[in-house]
Amino acid sequence: xxxxxxxxxxxxxxxxxxxxxxxxxxxxxxxxxxxxxxxxxxxxxxxxxxxxxxxxxxxxxxxxxxxxxxxxxxxxxxxxxxxxxxxxxxxxxxxxxxxxxxxxxxxxxxxxxxxxxxxxxxxxxxxxxxxxxxxxxxxxxxxxxxxxxxxxxxxxxxxxxxxxxxxxxxxxxxxxxxxxxxxxxxxxxxxxxxxxxxxxxxxxxxxxxxxxxxxxxxxxxxxxxxxxxxxxxxxxxxxxxxxxxxxxxxxxxxxxxxxxxxxxxxxxxxxxxxxxxxxxxxxxxxxxxxxxxxxxxxxxxxxxxxxxxxxxxxxxxxxxxxxxxxxxxxxxxxxxxxxxxxxxxxxxxxxxxxxxxxxxxxxxxxxxxx
Length: 370
Ligand SMILES: Cc1cc2nc3c(=O)[nH]c(=O)nc-3n(C[C@H](O)[C@H](O)[C@H](O)COP(=O)(O)OP(=O)(O)OC[C@H]3O[C@@H](n4cnc5c(N)ncnc54)[C@H](O)[C@@H]3O)c2cc1C
Known about the structure:
Elements: E1 5-13, H1 17-28, E2 33-36, E3 50-53, H2 60-80, E4 90-93, H3 97-105, E5 111-113, E6 132-135, E7 139-142, H4 143-154, E8 158-159, E9 163-167, E10 175-179, E11 183-191, H5 197-202, E12 211-222, E13 233-236, E14 245-249, E15 255-260, E16 267-268, H6 279-293, E17 297-311, E18 319-324, E19 327-332, H7 339-350, H8 357-366
Parallel strand pairs: 1-2, 1-11, 2-8, 4-13, 11-19
Antiparallel strand pairs: 3-7, 4-6, 5-6, 9-10, 10-11, 12-15, 12-16, 12-17, 13-14, 14-15, 18-19
Helix pairs in contact: 1-4, 1-7, 2-7
């Protein structure tokens, strides 16, 4: 093939954390792989400075995947020579015995703590009426360090171009990708294009019911007198302070991010860009929450990030990996924590392997409206 028609073996579309992880996994296996990325790697949903790594999930299969992912994060840390998942732990309010049971089932260390006293696990937290579930091996992901390490590992395999479309050619041989300057014929394409994954996967006959919304997360400074107290990742489903929220330390800084979770808290983008971001209203609600629930933080935001997030109908931990001949596609939400594991799963699929049963089951569950 010459001129504007070219051949490639394996192509990854998108250099967010998942595309980078898949490209790295394939390259380590000796596969001839390139990754198309039209923008700066790691800047779309993988942008920002902190993500929560936590084990607790509603579905025990997801707990298993998180535990397996943490072991792979530790291998990435050895290769990177840097901490990627900090030792902050995670603390959850409003949990039940079933939440602890999922952790127990998969041998994830955890304990219950008395919420009514000042918490030795979370110094900035006000006393809460129920118990706190503590997940000590969870922590805040150092997202920038992780993206930098991945970019370093995949090196010049990134091609700085957008893919405009994916199609299955009439002769059924491989998959075609249309880019700015060529039509490529690839043996296998792995679509990791975040919000663009459904549009690209549709060309290969894969339908993905992904929703997009704008999400606001302000961050707050830790008061000086709490500077040396533990700052774990935080999930508050107790409702005692009027909101359901998550929070996370920004590793290596004295700031803490807080965001709303639950149905209807983000601004839907079904018809494209929404009219407003509702940034001010969300910052106001979160600041009121901080004033009540987190007295160890200054109740005045020092910054805010408003970003697009994608979700499947099954909820905020739902994700999926879909396959068609020559194509594997992945998307969902809260996937940073699973990146080292999904990189291997996607690489297996690109090499003709089956998806692991928990991934197949969670994909089906996540695409059914909750
Ligand atoms: C505010 C916020 C908080 C979050 N909190 C957590 C958390 O606490 N824990 C957690 O685990 N996860 C969390 N997540 C989710 C997590 O960050 C994402 O699931 C993850 O980063 C998705 O990575 P990705 O590689 O699939 O997608 P992205 O990072 O969106 O990457 C997709 C890439 O594809 C590229 N691309 C798109 N279209 C094309 C095209 N046509 N051609 C070439 N390239 C293309 C884009 O430019 C982009 O770089 C959060 C996300 C947000 C936004």
